[in-house]
Amino acid sequence: MPVIFKCSCGEYISVPNKYIGKKLQCPQCQNIINVPVPGEEEKKTE
């Protein structure tokens, strides 16, 4: 199951689970972003 997350530019990115915790480049804005651990973003907002 892929990980789907949002870049700061607003682009939604879907990557395979093997990229969790790694850095990649956003195809829209070219920024380097960290692939989040699923569920980690929800914990930050609570």
What does this structure look like?
The protein is of the alpha+beta class and 46 residues long. The chain has one domain (3-45). 13% of the residues lie in helices and 30% in strands. The chain has a two-stranded antiparallel sheet with strand order 1-2. Strands 3-4 form a two-stranded antiparallel sheet. A hairpin with a 6-residue loop joins strand 3 (23-25) and strand 4. The longest helix is centred in the C-terminal third of the chain and has 6 residues, at 40-45. It is globular, with a radius of gyration of 10 Å. The chain starts with a strand and ends with a helix. The mean pLDDT is 89.
Give the key terms.
alpha+beta, 13% helix, globular, two-stranded antiparallel ribbon, 4 strands, single chain
Please tell me the overall pLDDT. 89
Order of helices and strands: EEEEH
Number of DSSP E strands = 4
Residue share in helix: 10-25%
Helical segment tally? 1
Low-confidence stretches: none
Helix-strand category: alpha+beta
Spatial order of the strands in the main sheet? 1-2
Number of domains: 1
